[in-house]
Design goal:
Helices cover 74% and strands 0% of the residues. It has 172 residues and is mainly alpha-helical. Helix 2 (22-30) crosses helix 6. It is globular. The N and C termini lie far apart (42 Å).
C-alpha cells in the first residue's frame, strides 16, 4: 500500500463520505462468527481505522465535528435504551422485521458514530503535553507488558480460589 500510486486522499474524505462507512461494518457483523467473535466485523473496523481514520486530514475533520458527533452518539444511546426498555416491557418485539432491521441499523450506526466521536473528542481535548504525560509516554509500553502478565496470573489464581464474579472483579 505504501508503494501504490493510488492512495486514499484524506482531504477528499468529507464527513458525508465518512459517515456511511458503517455499512461495511454492518455487513461484517452479519457474516458468520468464529468462536462467538465477529472476526470479520473487527477486521473491517481495523482496516477502516488503518486506511481512513489514520489520515491527519480525516482526524482534523473529526476534531472539527466532534461535538455534533458526540451529541448524535448520546442521542442514539438514548434511543437504544428506550427501545430496549420497550422490548423488555413487551411493547415491541424483535420478531417484527421493521423493529429488527431498525435495531440492527442503529446498532451499527451507533458503533461507527461512537468511534468517530471518541476520536474527534480525544483529538480535541487530549492533545496536551506536560512533564507527567511525557513520563507516562516513555513508561507506557513496559507498564503495559508487565500489567498484562500480572493481570493474567492474578486472574487465573483468583478464578480458581474465589467464587462470585463481582468479588473476583474487585480482587483482580
Amino acid at each position: 500500500y505504501k508503494n501504490k500510486k493510488r492512495k486514499l486522499v484524506g482531504r477528499k474524505m468529507t464527513i458525508l463520505k465518512i459517515l456511511p462507512l458503517f455499512i461495511p461494518i454492518a455487513i461484517g457483523a452479519e457474516l458468520p462468527e468464529i468462536g462467538g467473535k465477529g472476526i470479520t466485523e473487527f477486521a473491517v473496523c481495523f482496516l477502516l481505522g488503518y486506511f481512513v481514520l489514520s489520515s491527519d486530514e480525516v482526524q482534523e475533520r473529526l476534531e472539527k465535528h466532534c461535538m455534533p458527533l458526540a451529541i448524535t452518539w448520546v442521542g442514539l444511546m438514548f434511543f437504544r435504551c428506550i427501545t430496549y426498555q420497550l422490548y423488555e416491557m413487551k411493547y415491541i418485539s424483535f420478531e417484527t422485521p421493521a423493529v429488527d432491521i431498525t435495531w440492527f441499523i442503529t446498532q451499527n450506526i451507533f458503533k461507527w458514530i461512537g468511534i468517530l466521536a471518541i476520536i474527534g473528542l480525544a483529538k480535541r481535548y487530549l492533545k496536551f503535553h506536560n512533564k507527567v504525560t511525557q513520563n507516562f509516554a516513555a513508561a507506557s509500553f513496559p507498564v503495559y507488558l508487565i500489567h498484562q502478565s500480572a493481570v493474567v496470573v492474578v486472574g487465573y489464581i483468583v478464578a480458581i480460589y474465589l467464587s462470585g464474579a463481582g468479588f473476583q472483579y474487585i480482587v483482580i
